[in-house]
Amino acid sequence: MTRTVYVNGDYVPEGEASVSIFDRGFLFADGVYEVTSVLGGKLVDFDGHWARLERSLTELEMRNPVDRDEMLAIHRELVSVNGIVDGRVYLQVTRGSAGDRDFAYPSEDTEPTLVLFTQATPGILDAPIAQKGIRVISVDDLRWARRDIKTVQLLYPCMGKMAAKAAGVDDAWMVEDGAVTEGTSNNAYIVKDGAIVTRALSHDILAGITRAAVLRFANEAQMKVVERDFTIEEAKAADEAFITSASMFVQGVVEVDGEAIGDGRPGPVSQRLREIYLEESLKVAI
Ligand code: PMP
User: Fold this and answer.
1) Is the pLDDT of residue 1 over 90?
2) Cβ atoms within 10 Å, residue 89
3) Is 4-125 CATH 3.10.150.10?
4) Band of the pLDDT at 280, cuts 50, 70, 90?
5) Probe ligand 1: pick from 142, 187, 243, 249, max atoms within 8 Å of CB?
């Protein structure tokens, strides 16, 4: 089945979708994005992603071309026409095209570009990796200093992912001034003596929508949560480690820089959080 995608008001077969070569997303990575998970045909935490999109746009003085209800309707239409049961909806807003290349932002009346597409991930909940856990290496965090804005300038995370691949592992944790910031596309956590430790929110990391949900559930379940920096050495000595993202939910990390964490399997805290997260998210998915 040909995938139907959305471009600036139109639903079209993916092969017919196009944007200008002068689009600022293409020329300057002048755009932001969101990825919303679909489980059982329903959107997980749509309003969390919507709120973060609005924030990213505001930080970049960019206009949102649609309102919340229209964005929800587009998501639902794409999920429906593409028959997505388990998968994702990717959305991207760019500052549009002024018909040429110019560093200065174009005038206010330039239409932003809005593109959405779906990705199917059948069987993702039962993927073997969830039981097995992922392995990571550490790399220097060489990204810009506003990682709280979810921009499409993802070249460095791509390089981190390639470094991981070259090392025969699954992902990279980025390190700045001796402390872990986050994974290439996820938030990072360790568990030590029952306490869940994750870096506090700032301009240094993305405020994960999954992070917010998981920390809320952890607090509700009376688990101890400490928001502070941690090092790779602490991760190696931790009882457990895990990541969160809309695409991976809660995923155990079992090795960092070649050293096993805990007993080398996803630990009980991350497994419990994964269960709670999936159960609670599904209840309120729309
Ligand atoms: N950090 C980074 C750098 C990311 O790219 C992502 C995924 N978009 C996350 C964290 C996790 O965010 P979320 O839980 O909203 O997917």
Assistant:
1) no
2) 26
3) no
4) very high
5) 187
Whole-prediction pTM: 0.97
DSSP 98: -
Structure tokens at 246: 């809309």
Per the CATH hierarchy, to which homologous superfamily does domain 129-284 belong?
D-amino Acid Aminotransferase, subunit A, domain 2 (3.20.10.10)
Catalytic status, residue 150: yes
Indicate if the pLDDT at residue 259 is higher than 90: yes
Q: Let me know if the fold of 4-125 is the same as that of 129-284.
A: no
- Within 121-261, strands assigned E span 134-140, 171-176, 179-183, 187-192, 195-198, 224-227, 240-245, 249-256, 259-260
Within 6 Å (CB) of ligand 1, which residues are found? Answer: 35, 182, 185-187, 206, 208-211, 244-246
| Substitution site in 89, 184, 206 for ligand 1 pocket (most atoms within 8 Å of beta carbon) | 206
Span from the CA of 282 to the centroid of ligand 1 (angstroms) = 19
Write down the catalytic residue from 42, 150, 224, 283: 150
pLDDT of residue 243: 98
Domain ranges in the chain?
4-125, 129-284
